[in-house]
Amino acid sequence: MTKQIHLAAHFPGVNNTTVWSDPRSGSQIDFDSFRHLAQTAERGKFDFFFLAEGLRLREMKGRIHDLDVVGRPESLTVLAALSAVTTRLGLAATVNSTFNEPYEVARRLASLDHLSGGRAAWNVVTSWDAFTGENFRRGGYLAETDRYTRAAEFLQTARELWDSWAPDAVTAADGQFIRPGGISTFHHDGRHFTITGQFNVPRPPQGHPVIIQAGDSDEGRDFAASSADVIFSRHSKLEEGRAFYRDVKSRLPRYGRRPGDLKILPAVTYVLGDTQEDAAERAAEIRRAQVSPQTAISFLEGVWGRDLSAYDPDGPLPDLEPDLGPGVSEGRAQFRGDRGAVAAKWRALAEEKNLSIRELVIETAAPQTFVGTAASVAEEINTFVQTDAADGFIFVPHLTPGGLDDLVDQVVPLLQEKGVFRADYTGPTLRDHLGLTKELS
């Protein structure tokens, strides 16, 4: 059976995705940037528009990382504003479960779902570093296993709050009268949360907002299989995608779920050209723009854990071995793993291909997914989905705010001609777009 492709748009943020030097690059804060990208996605009949979250300005060598985005508006506030200038596009916010409370998050998401007519989604994430925790009263951070148990209980508690209102609790069209018995007192007594009371927002139009999860660890995959509607994957290569797809989908039956209950959407990029050669040239230019000489040294410092500012980014890797102590980067997840293993892998790759520092970082930290003509990219997207490497994709453009224009104008019509992507929305809610059932208590 031919599968229908799901598409979503990510507003680019931190790391080296955005090419700030491009004269077409716009503001990261001005509402018009969010509006343009969201309305372009809606014009392309995308399922949803996705915003990441940043709870602290990241640092490098004890100073604010000046190659990063300085200032990221709070996601749910932006999406509430976008609900007034879009009509069908889903609106997905990343909201942290480590440094928030279930009642407040459930209330804000239910409000967004009402304001948008059933288009809200929540990307449930955890926080892994004490550096971010310093911004919050509780401080510190939880062990990885505790982060997921807290996240699971956080989500369970939010669902209990949404379910405390019966679907027909409000009997008047203007929401003025509450049917007797339409609201239940909630009581949750668990390891992480003990709360009792009455929820003050009616049940969301979708029952529950769509739940997104982005973890790739074994615990993260289980959490997605048990609780999520969408998993935001990093596996954008065909064979890796198929292996991830098989693994996560195979976990669903143990939670009483079917394959269609969870959509797997890798984060991807694209570059179009009039010919394959033209696209490849443009892709190479974009990768060099994404990895400036300063960015290259910054990435190497993050792995090596040392100040390498004296090294030539167009020269060879330093002879120094990495310092595997605390490191020089704060708040950057890509440097939290086994840096010694990464350094060894990078050194082997640099020797094999005779790469300079900058060329190495371009090779490893600026990957591109779909590069080609509109026709070849459309064919490749379809192949991924039809061969079970993904259910669709979340596109992360390299320009703000016009980075999706070419995709929507040139590639989407070809997918529609193939009959694998909708010509128009068939329902008003995000659950309709994703082919998910409405959540009922």
Automatic annotation (TrEMBL):
The keyword Flavoprotein applies. It comes from the Bacteria. FMN binds at residues 94, 148, 217. It holds the Pfam family Bac_luciferase. Keywords: Flavoprotein, FMN, Monooxygenase, Oxidoreductase. GO terms for molecular function: monooxygenase activity; oxidoreductase activity, acting on paired donors, with incorporation or reduction of molecular oxygen. Residues 24-387 form the Luciferase-like domain. The keyword Oxidoreductase applies. Belongs to the NtaA/SnaA/DszA monooxygenase family. This is Nitrilotriacetate monooxygenase component A. It comes from Acrocarpospora pleiomorpha.
